Structures are given as structure tokens and as C-alpha cells.
UniProtKB/TrEMBL annotation:
Alphabetical list of Pfam families matching this protein: DUF2189
Taxonomy, superkingdom: Bacteria
Membrane-traversing stretches: 67-87, 93-113, 142-167, 187-213, 245-272
Native species: Paracoccus mangrovi
Record-linked InterPro entries: DUF2189 (IPR018692)
Record's protein name: DUF2189 domain-containing protein
Keywords, sorted A to Z: Membrane, Transmembrane, Transmembrane helix
Length: 285
């Protein structure tokens, strides 16, 4: 029989550090492209959106127990942020938080893309199996793109605060009723609405273009962040009408999902996440 030995703490630590080093190296290496095949961007239309939403709903119904459990944290975070804004005297940030929180939705849906990919291939589709693949080569680019969306979300909040300060501010309002009264009954309030909506549209358009197919693509292919971003923008550029319609559908669905204290997002976000995977499969070959 082979003799078993117990490693000393120093060798055990060295082995673990080496493993961590290899993982970090793989994550960093994944940021650049290793796929020499140039992605082909296809034309997509309303039929593709309908099919993607239908397939997304099918994925949700097939995987709902795992998906609902995993997605429950997302509306909780949104609700906590809204409560913070209300009690911190930052009621003017309530709408920017609700409208801007979906900007980081593609990050929360990363596991959903992998689950749809696995179901498409007939592989194990439980949540832990999906998350287990988000490491090594995939982890680096996904984290980088996620940080980009988070930075855009934070920048949006700063810009929204600046718009409020330049119109209705900078003195905080005494409660949400006073804020709503000043918003809809004063010229400064309507200026804030118009400027804020226009600025928010720009932020939403940027996020839509950079995240349209980039996250699913990073999970599906070793393309790296630059190629994924360029391909996502190319899909939007080649299909402007379809992209705008998809963005409108996503915005309306997410808004409706936030109305009952963000609870509706437990259903809306998974369907949209799965549908995004199927839209990617139709848009890029």
C-alpha cells in the first residue's frame, strides 16, 4: 500500500497560493481574445425578439425553482437602496435608483445565460453547476464588464443628483409629498424631469449597446472584453430598430417588475435574462 503523508502547513499554503495564482492568471488572460474566428453579426427582427422571449419563458418555467431562489437577492438589494434613499433624506434619488438599478441587471443575469446555454446543450442546469463555470478564463472579463456597468450606474446617480441640485435643490425636501409637489407644480421641477429623462435615456442607450450580447458572448466564447464590446455595438449598429424595440421591452418589463416593491423582478429578470441568451444566439454566429 502507498504510504500516506500529511503535508506541513508551509507546503499546504504554497500549494494553495499557487492555485490562486493560476486562477488569477487565467482570469487576467481571459480579458484578451483567444478566438481567432471573427464573429458574424446577423440581422434580427421582431420575429427574433418574439422567439427569444418565448424561449426565455420556456427556460424560466423549466428552471424556475433554481432561478427564483437565486434571483430573490436582486429585488432585496433594490428595495434596500430605495429605503436608504427615503430615510437618508435623499428622496430625489428614489426615481434615479429605480430607473437606474436595471443598468446592472446584465451582471445579475450572468448565471441565467449559462443555465440557458447548458439547457440548450442538454447539460446539468442547476444554479451551482452554472456558477461553477464562472471562473478562470471567464471570470476576468465578466468582472471587468460588470465593473464597467457598476461605474455607469454610480455615475448616473451622481449626474441625477447634480441635475436635482441645479433645479430643485440643493436644500433637501421634507418628505416625498413635498418633493412630488415641487416636481410637478414648478418650472424648475419640469426642467429637472426633462433634463433627467433625456440624460437617463443616454445612459440607458449606452448600457444597451455595450451589454446587448457581450455577457452571453463572454460565457460562450473566448473572445475577451474588447471583442465582446465591439460585437455588441456592431449588433446594435446593424439592427438599430430591433435594438431600440428590445430596449423598450426590457425597460417596460423591468419598470413593471419594480412597482410591487421590486418583487416582480423575481420573475421578470429571469425571463429577460434567458431571452437575452437566445437573442444573442440569433444575432451572432
Amino acid at each position: 500500500m502507498p504510504r500516506e503523508t500529511i503535508g506541513n502547513p508551509l507546503s499546504w499554503s504554497a500549494q494553495n497560493l499557487a492555485g490562486i495564482g493560476r486562477g488569477v492568471g487565467a482570469a487576467v488572460d481571459g480579458i484578451s481574445s483567444h478566438d481567432t474566428a471573427r464573429p458574424v453579426v446577423n440581422r434580427i427582427g421582431m420575429a427574433d425578439i418574439r422567439a427569444s422571449l418565448r424561449n426565455g419563458a420556456d427556460d424560466f418555467l423549466a428552471l424556475r425553482s433554481d432561478v427564483i431562489t437565486a434571483m430573490a437577492l436582486y429585488p432585496v438589494i433594490g428595495f434596500v437602496l430605495a429605503v436608504w434613499a427615503f430615510h437618508a433624506g435623499q428622496v430625489h434619488l428614489l426615481f434615479p435608483l429605480i430607473a437606474g438599478f436595471p443598468l446592472v441587471g446584465p451582471v445579475a443575469a450572468i448565471g441565467l445565460y449559462e443555465m440557458s446555454r447548458r439547457r440548450e446543450r442538454g447539460e446539468d442546469t442547476d444554479w451551482w453547476a452554472a456558477l461553477s463555470t464562472l471562473r478562470g478564463r471567464i471570470l476576468g472579463p465578466v468582472l471587468m464588464l460588470g465593473l464597467l456597468l457598476m461605474a455607469i450606474f454610480v455615475l448616473w446617480l451622481f449626474v441625477a443628483h447634480a441635475i436635482w441640485a441645479a433645479t430643485l435643490g440643493p436644500v433637501p425636501h421634507d418628505g416625498i409629498s413635498a418633493f412630488l409637489r415641487d416636481t410637478f407644480t414648478t418650472g424648475a421641477g419640469w426642467t429637472m424631469i426633462v433634463v433627467g429623462m433625456g440624460t437617463g435615456f443616454v445612459f440607458a442607450a449606452v448600457v444597451l449597446c455595450v451589454s446587448l450580447v457581450s455577457f452571453p458572448m463572454l460565457i460562450d466564447r473566448p473572445v475577451g472584453v474588447p471583442v465582446a464590446l465591439a460585437t455588441s455595438c456592431a449588433v446594435a449598429r446593424r439592427n438599430p430598430g430591433t435594438t431600440a424595440l428590445w430596449g423598450l421591452i426590457v425597460a417596460l418589463a423591468l419598470f413593471l417588475g419594480t412597482i410591487p416593491l421590486f418583487v416582480g423582478l423575481i420573475v421578470v429578470l429571469p425571463i429577460l435574462g434567458h431571452a437575452t441568451w437566445h437573442l444573442y444566439r440569433r444575432a451572432v454566429t
